[in-house]
């Protein structure tokens, strides 16, 4: 094993978590010629990564830890991060090689990110939290934005790998700050998505042409990221986007962080309540979060 100064040149890169996002991120590392050791709870996802060119598949987290010098994780939530990193027998921290670089791209509770990072440092490793923005399309095109929390050394070591998976790599501060940036970003995203769709729904109800009102939004003061997105996922039945359930999770994290800081989120609370209501339907929970338009349409006529 060997390390380059100021970057990552490890012989083997571990990748744990090959879902909608992780599978595409791993694919970009493979395309860049990196030797990947992959693991996921779903063996079908592992086999798909191997078919794309992953060097080997691991039987578990412990095997990834023992084989690699840098490990990327992309997991569902805080619970899975704690299980993968902290298990006393099979976890990454217990079994990793000295001075392993951990890049956790999961969106999770900032306090958990800080705690796991502290334990990683205590064991002689380097860890950054690096949640992403850009969705499935960004993961596939390697145009993701990474919000990185951790030491300057950790940021420098991780940047080489992150640039193979994304376009905008920002050091947000020390451990946990990447998570803070991500949940604040998604808080704003949820609020603007609901606001744009409220206006869109109102315009359609009054008989406006969808393309006309969309053009108005995109060329007037309502213009924002969401304004260019409204209506597009609906043409694909709201499939394969950023899921309602994931937005509900992120808003829950924002709500918790706000409560801990004594900050009120009037609009955020309303957005969180709306997405929590939407995710109760198991079909809707898997739809793109812009499905809020259909939810609002369903409220038409009610008082």
TrEMBL record:
Residue ranges of every copy of the 3-hydroxyisobutyrate dehydrogenase-like NAD-binding domain listed in the record: 176-292
Molecular function via GO: 3-hydroxyisobutyrate dehydrogenase activity; NAD binding; NADP binding
Any one Gene Ontology BP term: L-valine catabolic process
Gene3D superfamilies xrefs: N-(1-d-carboxylethyl)-l-norvaline Dehydrogenase, domain 2, NAD(P)-binding Rossmann-like Domain
EC number(s) from the headed UniProt entry: 1.1.1.31
Pathway assignment: Amino-acid degradation; L-valine degradation
UniProt keyword terms in alphabetical order: Branched-chain amino acid catabolism, NAD, Oxidoreductase
The keyword Nucleotide-binding belongs to this UniProt entry's keyword annotation: no
Active site: 182
Domain (6-phosphogluconate dehydrogenase NADP-binding): residue spans on this chain: 12-173
Superkingdom of origin: Eukaryota
Chemical reaction(s) catalysed: 3-hydroxy-2-methylpropanoate + NAD(+) = 2-methyl-3-oxopropanoate + NADH + H(+)
Family: Belongs to the HIBADH-related family. 3-hydroxyisobutyrate dehydrogenase subfamily.
PANTHER family: 3-HYDROXYISOBUTYRATE DEHYDROGENASE, MITOCHONDRIAL, 3-HYDROXYISOBUTYRATE DEHYDROGENASE-RELATED
Name of the molecule in the record: 3-hydroxyisobutyrate dehydrogenase
């Amino acid at each position: 094993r060997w390390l380059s100064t100021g970057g990552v040149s490890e012989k083997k890169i571990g990748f744990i978590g090959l879902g909608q996002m992780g599978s595409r991120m791993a694919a970009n590392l493979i395309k860049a010629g990196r030797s990947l050791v992959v693991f996921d709870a779903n063996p079908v996802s592992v086999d798909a990564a191997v078919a794309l060119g992953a060097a080997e598949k691991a039987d578990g987290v412990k095997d990834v830890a023992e084989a690699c010098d840098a490990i990327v994780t992309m997991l569902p939530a805080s619970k899975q991060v704690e299980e993968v990193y902290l298990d006393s027998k099979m976890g990454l921290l217990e079994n990793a090689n000295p001075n392993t670089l951990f890049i956790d791209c999961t969106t999770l509770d900032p306090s958990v990110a800080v705690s796991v990072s502290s334990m990683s440092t205590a064991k002689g490793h380097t860890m950054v939290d690096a949640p992403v923005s850009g969705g499935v399309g960004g993961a596939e095109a390697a145009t993701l934005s990474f919000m990185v929390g951790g030491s300057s050394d950790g940021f420098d070591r991780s940047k080489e790998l992150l640039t193979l998976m994304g376009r905008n790599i920002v050091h947000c501060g020390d451990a946990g700050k990447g998570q803070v940036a991500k949940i604040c970003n998604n808080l704003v995203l949820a609020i603007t998505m609901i606001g744009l769709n409220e206006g869109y729904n109102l315009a359609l109800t009054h008989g406006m042409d969808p393309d006309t009102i969309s053009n108005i939004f995109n060329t007037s003061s309502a213009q924002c990221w969401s304004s260019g997105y409204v209506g597009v996922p609906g043409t694909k039945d709201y499939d394969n986007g950023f899921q309602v359930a994931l937005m509900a999770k992120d808003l829950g994290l924002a709500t918790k962080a706000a409560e801990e800081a004594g900050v009120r989120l009037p609009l955020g609370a309303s957005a969180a309540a709306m997405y929590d209501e939407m995710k109760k339907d198991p079909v809707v929970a898997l739809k793109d979060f812009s499905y809020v338009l259909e939810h609002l349409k369903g409220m038409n006529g009610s008082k």
